[in-house]
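A reminder from the course coordinator: this example appears on the midterm review sheet, so study it carefully.

Given structure:
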């Protein structure tokens, strides 16, 4: 055989393998549990619980040798499937479009909260988040290396894709390499050849270079991870290899159990480093491949055709969940650990919050075309008409829930907070234990307000053609976003915090929308709702400002009045955005709307 051919994909319809997808989903699910366990392990991690358990050292070692190596193998196989009907340049472009936006977004947005919390917790940063972020991405901070934390996996995937480009361009060379590996792995070679390689690099490279998860100088890691990546890329379509893995699966399982026990015993025993660590490292390398071979063999045997709706959902969810999970976990530990709950209760909460929060992120971003690329999702097949407007409206739908979540979290982190007497802004002031929570929420609300305002204004334009009223609606929300953003960056009692008064202009938005949508008889319920909201905000303003019933609002109850005002001021946006998004969704297929020809979203 002189190169890759169609026989490399025999039996793999659609360019996918359900067994490999199941392994990928399982490995990433295990990664979440692994990271939760690190919060309790006797190691130094980003943010840890007050509970520590020595026995986790051995438990974590059960998956450490093989979990990420397996993921690199599966990633290499996935890249090979991409070459089935594409040229090398097309595969490279598609891979970079999928990997680079999440890597940049994650580095700038998702990782900094983790690093900031770690810096505050370990005492080497005492300032606020904004200055931390600016410090990290200043010339000096970049020169000192920008942390990527769990995103190192993406960095390595980008590098390995670059490394494999020559093989994509020369399938004849790739074919000869695959032929040679296939011959070497015949029979029992499927076990002893990879084991010998992994033991060799563990004995020779690991003592010198260790394991840093940094692209430069991490030669042991590259030897194992790039090796696994190439294994998957070159051999995913060679049926003799998979037949051998299936044939030896029972033997590899038995040997994997024995090797794992020996490896853990060597790691936790005081004398485990005897004989220059050779027995310990040999047990590690053997365990690494025996577990992978067992999983590949059993999955190929029983899961190759198990392509279910659940697998489709989880496969699509893996990338966004991977991006989000560690940030959610670190924040959750930071908020929950100070309460010193029983370890079992605390761990259950962390697992639920991390997994549930990650899936919630996926559910949100998969519905918003603008967000899909930066979260590692392919562009949706949503009809183009009104897609951008609807995406912007979804920010408005999410805004009230996000604001409520951050406010409740900030209040929980401020045990002595008096809801009757204190203003919400005090949750982000100097008396709060964790002002970052509230101020981060306000800053997020500022961004969402601006995006939602654009969506509302463009929706008015799409449905009625009322350009001026649509523009004024957007401007009011953009000013509100600017005011909220300034308030978040300059917490009370900084006088610049008073810029939040710009947000009060949002009181005019229901009236603007009401007039802007007056020509739509099918939106009577929405227009009635807007009229009620405007009247409610007017009444609350009059009463709170003591223009009538002086003394009704006083220092003993002003907090509750402010809460009621905030619920109306923010909550109506979610309802209005939801109703307009539903209207646009109904309009899109049939081409309705007064300004169909002018639609750009």
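Designed residues:
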């Amino acid at each position: 055989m002189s190169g890759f051919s169609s026989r490399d994909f025999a039996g793999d319809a659609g360019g996918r393998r359900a067994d490999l997808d199941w392994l990928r989903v399982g490995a990433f699910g295990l990664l979440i549990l692994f990271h939760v366990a690190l919060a309790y392990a006797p190691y130094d991690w980003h943010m840890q619980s007050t509970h520590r358990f020595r026995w986790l050292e051995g438990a974590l070692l059960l998956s450490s040798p093989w979990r990420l190596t397996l993921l690199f193998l599966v990633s290499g196989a996935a890249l090979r499937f991409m070459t089935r009907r594409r040229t090398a340049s097309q595969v490279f472009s598609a891979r970079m479009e999928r990997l680079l936006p999440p890597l940049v977004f994650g580095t700038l947005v998702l990782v900094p909260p983790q690093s900031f919390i770690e810096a505050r917790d370990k005492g080497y940063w005492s300032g606020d988040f904004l200055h931390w972020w600016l410090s990290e991405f200043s010339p000096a901070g970049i020169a000192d290396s920008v942390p990527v934390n769990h995103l190192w996996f993406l960095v390595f995937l980008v590098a390995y894709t670059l490394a494999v480009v020559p093989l994509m361009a020369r399938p004849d060379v790739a074919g000869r390499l695959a032929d040679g590996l296939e011959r070497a792995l015949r029979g029992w070679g499927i076990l002893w050849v990879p084991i010998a390689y992994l033991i060799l690099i563990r004995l020779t490279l690991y003592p010198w270079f260790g394991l840093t998860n940094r692209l430069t100088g991490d030669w042991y890691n590259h030897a194992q991870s790039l090796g696994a990546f190439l294994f998957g890329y070159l051999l995913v379509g060679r049926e003799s290899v998979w037949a051998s893995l299936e044939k030896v699966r029972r033997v590899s399982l038995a040997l994997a159990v024995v090797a794992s026990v020996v490896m853990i015993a060597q790691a936790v025993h005081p004398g485990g480093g005897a004989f220059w660590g050779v027995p310990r490292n040999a047990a590690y390398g053997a365990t690494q491949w025996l577990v992978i071979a067992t999983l590949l063999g059993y999955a190929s045997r029983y899961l190759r055709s198990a392509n279910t709706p659940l697998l489709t959902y989880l496969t699509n969810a893996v990338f966004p969940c991977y991006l989000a999970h560690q940030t959610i976990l670190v924040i959750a530990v930071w908020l929950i650990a100070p309460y010193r709950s029983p370890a079992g209760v605390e761990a259950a909460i962390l697992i639920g919050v991390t997994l549930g929060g990650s899936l919630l992120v996926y559910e949100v971003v998969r519905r918003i075309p603008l967000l899909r690329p930066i979260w590692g999702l392919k562009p949706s097949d949503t009809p183009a008409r009104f897609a951008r407007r609807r995406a912007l409206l979804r920010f408005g739908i999410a805004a009230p829930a996000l604001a409520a979540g951050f406010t409740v979290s900030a209040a929980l982190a401020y045990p002595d907070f008096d809801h009757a007497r204190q203003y919400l802004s005090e949750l982000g002031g100097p008396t709060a234990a964790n002002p970052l929570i509230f101020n981060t929420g306000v800053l997020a609300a500022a961004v969402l307000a601006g995006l939602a305002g654009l969506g509302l204004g463009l929706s008015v334009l799409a449905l009625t053609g009322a350009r001026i009223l649509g523009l004024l609606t957007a401007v009011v929300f953009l000013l509100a976003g600017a005011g909220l953003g300034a308030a978040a960056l300059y917490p009370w009692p900084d006088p610049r915090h008073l810029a939040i008064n710009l947000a009060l202009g949002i009181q005019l938005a229901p009236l603007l929308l009401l007039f802007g949508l007056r020509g739509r008889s099918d939106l009577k319920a929405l227009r009635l709702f807007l009229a009620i909201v405007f009247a409610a905000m007017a009444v609350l303003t009059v009463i709170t400002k003591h223009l009538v019933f002086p003394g009704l609002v006083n220092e003993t109850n002003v907090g509750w009045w402010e809460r009621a005002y905030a619920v109306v001021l923010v909550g109506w946006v979610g309802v209005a955005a939801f109703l307009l998004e539903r209207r646009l969704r109904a309009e899109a297929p049939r081409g309705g709307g007064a300004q169909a020809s002018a639609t750009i979203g």
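The two ends are 51 Å apart (CA to CA). The longest helix spans residues 88-121.
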